[in-house]
Amino acid sequence: xxxxxxxxxxxxxxxxxxxxxxxxxxxxxxxxxxxxxxxxxxxxxxxxxxxxxxxxxxxxxxxxxxxxxxxxxxxxxxxxxxxxxxxxxxxxxxxxxxxxxxxx
Length: 104
Description:
By secondary structure, the chain is mainly α. It has one domain (7-87). The protein has 2 helices and 2 strands. The chain has helices at 30-58, 64-98, and strands at residues 7-8, 20-21. It has a two-stranded antiparallel sheet with strand order 1-2. The radius of gyration is 18 Å and the shape is elongated. The mean pLDDT is 88.
């Protein structure tokens, strides 16, 4: 049975619009696995970037250009992380709707 809600994918569709996957599997299709791998890579990249950004932001000698660059990259990473969170939150809601009466 298809999910009650399409999965928000971690990459944009045409013209930057959200891209969705409708599937009836348990997350084992090729596109589902690819999306899982992309989400993991996006989160790792954000964590790595944060590790580089913190020292740069503490460095009083950092140039405005360097700070703008890291600011843009941090904004991109935050955008990706928020998309991952939204996608995973939707899937959690779907699981809760399909498993009534379960106690956690």
